[in-house]
Design goal:
The chain has 8 helices and 9 strands. By secondary structure, it is an alpha/beta fold. It has a single domain, classed as TIM Barrel. α2 runs parallel beside α7. Bound molecules: zinc ion. Zinc ion binds at residues 37-38, 95, 99, 136. Is involved in generating a small heat-stable compound (Nod), an acylated oligomer of N-acetylglucosamine, that stimulates mitosis in various plant protoplasts.
Length: 251
């Protein structure tokens, strides 16, 4: 292995496992968030409609540079979709503008990507703050994680796990909301763990379609998950609201 690859691997491991922004959770009850990345047009339309039907607000991590384009597995949402999501009270979160992997960027390039995304989303939605970030492709490194945690209240990973106890705000854990991986068994175990540990479950997905991509959810799965969460009485809130309930340290 080349030294450079070895060092990149170390930077990823360190970013994943070192808790660089610890926060002791002080929420009164288990919490659940529904999050979407990129954003596929089907997530902005069908996904949001399912949330709306249940009175739930989601968090949509937008890479504004992708809007209106075609991805391998789906069409991306348009600016109008994003404006509508924001107006409806869903949270708009930050991805990199061009969906660049943060570990491949310099600190300056990463800042420029975040600035560009913020400018584009301000042009779409009007003045908007974007306190919460998600790592595109889940890719990260310790130095870029440290850069991002200075700018954002939270950064969401794609690493599986329940957020409970002393969490890392700069590396929030997720549960895949994918038809391919979220079995009824896994869902029940995840919600059991959230109840036992007073945890925060962050579901994440991409497209929402009857035949979803390998990293997407069907409307049926989304509905089943929401009903299972509602049956437990866990509040479903945006990432922003969850962090408020968990108790951010005084600024
Ligand atoms: Zn993404």
């Amino acid at each position: 292995m080349k030294l450079r690859e070895f060092m990149a691997g170390l930077a990823r491991k360190a970013g994943r496992h070192l808790n660089t922004q610890p926060l002791g959770m002080r929420n009164r009850e288990p919490l659940v968030s529904f999050t979407f990345d990129d954003i596929a047009d089907s997530a902005a339309r069908h996904g949001a409609a399912i949330l709306d039907a249940h009175g739930i607000k989601g968090t949509f991590y937008v890479a504004a540079g992708l809007l209106g384009t075609r991805d391998e597995f789906w069409n991306l949402a348009t600016a109008d979709d994003i404006r509508r999501l924001n107006a409806a009270g869903h949270e708009i979160g930050c991805h990199t503008h061009d969906h660049r992997k943060v570990d491949e960027l310099s600190a300056a390039e990463l800042a420029a990507q975040c600035d560009a995304n913020h400018a584009a989303l301000t042009a779409i939605c009007g003045p908007i703050d974007l306190p919460n970030f998600a790592y595109p492709f889940g890719r990260q490194s310790l130095p870029r994680k440290r850069d991002l945690q200075r700018r954002f209240t939270s950064c969401r990973s794609v690493y599986e796990g329940l957020n409970a106890g002393r969490i890392d705000r700069a590396m929030l854990r997720v549960t895949e909301l994918y038809d391919r991986t979220l079995t009824a068994d896994k869902l029940a175990r995840t919600l059991d763990a959230a109840a036992a540990q007073n945890g925060w479950v962050i579901f994440y997905t991409h497209d929402v379609a009857d035949n979803p991509s390998w990293i997407g959810a069907s409307p049926r799965l989304m509905t089943e998950v929401i009903e299972a969460v509602e049956a437990r009485g866990f509040p479903c809130v945006t990432v922003r609201e969850a962090l408020a309930r968990i108790g951010l340290p005084e600024a």
